[in-house]
Every structure is written in C-alpha cells, then in structure tokens.
User: Which sequence fits this backbone?
C-alpha cells in the first residue's frame, strides 16, 4: 500500500538510504532535514526531481514547522532519524546533542500527538511513529556478557547515548501516557554508502585511499556489532508495517568484530582494489583512547527475527566489500562532503591526540 511518510533526518546517512528505499518501493516521502555537516542533499541526487520526494530544510526543534508539514501532507507515518549521532562530537559539544536529541524529539512527539488526535479513527488505527535509536543506550558489555536484548536496562555512558536514552524514554512515555502509537528500534553500528567519513569505516577507507594514517583508539580491541545500512532500512520498513505499537525491536548485524580487525579487513580489501605498492596496514596508527570508551556492544535481534521474520541480507564480508566499492566509485561525493569543517574536526579529534 502506498503511503506518505514524514522522514526526519532524511538527508543523513541512514535516513537517506531509507528515503531512497521507500521511494523505490512506491511511497511518497516528505523529508525534513536541518542539513548540518552530516546532512547532504547529494545523498538524494537520484530523487532530486522525483515528485514523490518533497524536501524541506528545517529541524525537529521547530514545532510550528513540523505542525505545518503534518497538516499539509497528512502522512500515515513519521520515521524519526533526526539526531546528533557522533560520540566524539558529543564529548566536545554536548549541548547540541541535548538540543536535537532531547528537546527536538520532545517537540516532534508533541506535534505528532496533536496531529494524531485530530485524525479520523481509521487513520488513527493506521498511523505509526517510529523512533530510530541506538544500542549505545544499553551501555557496555564484557566479553562474556550476553548480547543486548530489548529488556536490558539502560546504562548510557556518553553524552550522545544519554541524550538518545532520554529521547527513547520520552517516546515510551508518549505511548503509555497519551496513547501515541510509537515503536522504537535500537540498532548496532551501521556502515555502507553515504556515511559521513568521521565514523570508523569510511574514515579508514578514505585515509587508506590517500595514504594517510589509520587512527585506532586505545588497543583497538573495542568490539562492535556491524550492520549493513541496507539491511537496517529493510528492518525499519518491516517494523513500520508489522511492528506492534509500544514495542521496541533491536536490529543487529550478527557481526561482532574488534575495531582492529575491521581496519585490517579494510586494508586487505584496499590492497586488492587500490594497490599502493605496500600493504595499507602499514598506515595503522594507535592513538590515545577517547574518554568513557565502551568496550563491547552486541545486539540480540531474536525478537525481530522471530516475530516479524526479518533476516540480514549481507554478512560483514559481503557488506564491507560493497561499501568499499561504493566509496572508491564515488570520489566526487567524498570530495564534496570532506569540507574544511570536516578537515578541522579530523585534526582536532585524531591528529591532536598523537600516536601512542
């Protein structure tokens, strides 16, 4: 069934991948994005002239704007990707994360509730508010701990994860207090096309391509569960269609790897795709660890698989090759997003730490 979906943060990494998927599937998308450093209309160039994609520049903190979009476009669903999402930036500038992730989520929920209450009963029954969150709200795991389930208590350890935990709690409250039909998804680390190259995988691909140092925090043994962005977006669509209001669904990649193993894997593939005369692994440089660095995340997606029938289409081996191929084929996109602001951030966050 064709739907109109209000997507917030739809010019960012995961949001733009979702927008492209939904338009290809026949939906109409109203895309609200503030276009901060991580938002890029270049991600959406293929749908720039598509009448099923309506783009509006603005933030979820602007409740009057959100209300006007809801009234004008009458969406059957809201999918909220809008968030400040980089842990390192949250350590440097936590206030921006509170503004967007907490205050912005509250104002979006408030506008959505007013819209929902004015709908006819049949439209209310079909309406969904899907909030996209992170596994980082659950805290850190030891090597022997079981993976995060939806029942795991929240233990956020960074300003970023604390702000996302607060937004998750607000979403839950709007379901239990006001009856807004919300669903929350908590995902593991995403990778794939259009990811801003401050995150580990695109940063390593980009630096390896240019022969620059590949910075590794601490001892490189911090473990993450890696989820290909296309699989994540398919899971969100499935939850939007069949998920139950009030529930939370974890979305993981079943691909736990230490950071150093991720980097050496990328180096090996870069040796194959972009040979430089010497192994790219020679560029690996250990730098001072970031404060409060969680040791391990692992996500249990059993509920999503059991109740909704989801499964990953990509393993890490296949997904990382697709990702590297995409970055090597889209150097113009990389040059566009790696602005002076990006270079200043990389200098401040990595080079200023110095090699260990």
Assistant:
């Amino acid at each position: 069934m064709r739907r109109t979906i209000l997507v917030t943060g739809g010019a960012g990494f995961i949001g733009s991948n979702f927008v492209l998927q939904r338009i290809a599937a026949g939906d109409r998308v109203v895309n609200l994005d503030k276009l901060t450093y991580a938002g890029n209309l270049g991600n959406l160039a293929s749908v720039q002239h598509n009448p099923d994609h309506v783009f509006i520049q603005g933030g979820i903190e602007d409740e009057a704007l959100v209300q006007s979009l809801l009234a004008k476009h009458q969406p059957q669903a809201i999918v909220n990707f809008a968030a400040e999402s980089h842990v390192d930036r949250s350590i440097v500038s936590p206030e921006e994360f509170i503004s967007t992730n907490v205050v912005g989520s509250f104002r979006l929920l408030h506008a959505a509730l007013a819209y929902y209450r004015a709908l006819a009963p049949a439209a209310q029954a079909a309406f969904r508010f899907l909030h996209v969150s992170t596994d980082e709200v659950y805290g850190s795991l030891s090597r022997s701990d079981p993976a995060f389930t939806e029942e795991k208590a929240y233990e956020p350890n960074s300003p970023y994860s604390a702000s996302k935990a607060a937004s998750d709690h607000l979403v839950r409250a709007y379901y239990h207090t006001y009856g807004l039909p919300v669903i929350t998804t908590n995902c593991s680390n995403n990778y794939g096309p259009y990811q801003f190259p401050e995150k580990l995988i695109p940063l390593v691909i980009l630096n390896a391509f240019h022969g620059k140092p590949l910075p590794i925090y601490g001892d490189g043994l911090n473990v993450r569960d890696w989820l290909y962005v296309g699989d994540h977006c398919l899971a969100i669509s499935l939850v939007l269609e069949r998920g139950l209001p009030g529930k939370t669904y974890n979305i993981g990649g079943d691909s736990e790897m230490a950071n150093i193993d991720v980097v050496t894997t990328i180096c090996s593939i870069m040796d194959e795709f972009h040979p430089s005369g010497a192994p790219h692994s020679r560029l690996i440089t250990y730098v001072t660890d970031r404060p409060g660095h969680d040791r391990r995340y692992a996500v249990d997606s059993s509920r999503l698989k059991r109740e909704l029938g989801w499964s990953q289409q990509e393993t890490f081996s296949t997904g990382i090759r697709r990702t590297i191929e995409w970055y090597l084929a889209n150097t113009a996109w990389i040059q566009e997003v790696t602005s002076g602001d990006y270079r200043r951030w990389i200098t401040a966050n990595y080079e200023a730490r110095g090699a260990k």
In short: Residues 4-196+226-254+297-315 form a domain with the Rossmann fold fold (CATH 3.40.50.720). The longest strand covers residues 128-134.
